[in-house]
Amino acid sequence: MANILKFLVTAIRQSYHFQYSWTLPVPHPDSTSSQSPPSLRKEEETEYGVDDESGEEVNDSKFPWRDYWYRVSSLEDLDPLLPTPFQLLVRDLVLWFDKANQEWVAFDDQCPHRLAPLSEGRIDENGHLQCSYRGWSFDGCGWCAQIPQAMLEGPEAHAVNSPRAYATRSPTMVSQAADLDKPEFSTVITQHDMLYCYDTLLENVSDPSLIDFSHHKSLVAPGTFAGTNDGNPRISAEFVTPCYYMNKVEIDTKLPIVGAQKWIIWICSFDVPMAPGKIHSTVCSARNFFQFTMPGLN
Asked: To 5 degrees, how large is the angle CA 239–CA 65–CA 245?
């Protein structure tokens, strides 16, 4: 399926290595690496919230929003030749492809020079992200690679090495939806931005009261639940903090000629908070039966 089931995920925090699975991400911090670029954020835990009057971010919750990975795009929807803007937890980001290191990266969407949006820039001839305002360029680690106005000799020649000239980078990785990438599955992905409150939507699509139908209900982790009924169809539901919800439907059936079959339907949603009253919603559905193409559905 090429890049349809390869997702770019990012976290607004310092560099971490994560073990990521389709069901539950498990963090393995490694913040002492000397290889981390100087522009990676090294801030402490910051919670997601906005003051209603001032519009500024406030720390009014104890939930560690920035300790998690967030799905921001399918790779097939990103152009490696163009920077792409994205908003996550009230922070404007720019996603772009670092050709030198062959990886997707995320910067704060502002040039350290005059705070112009880097997403309105371009990928220059050297594969760097170039600001459209005065042409400052940055490599994939956030280092300033070029200041066109600076003299080639003297103090100005060293301006690119100033920490004030670094772009702020957040960690990224590519995650594969392995369970849905099997050849027997037909998969459809829809995504769009919605003017809808994150908490209202999550309460709607992942109502914890649904767990009551299960004889094998369990709490996987704080803020997470999973449940399964053992009938036919067999329905499994799981919510993974902070914004992933998964349903799996298994149907035992018997058809003429082909005989007994097990039909499987996956419905997975990723509802990423962009800002108060705004979310980026992605729904991924897959089935292992009726493998034909329908306009608008496949």
From this structure: 15
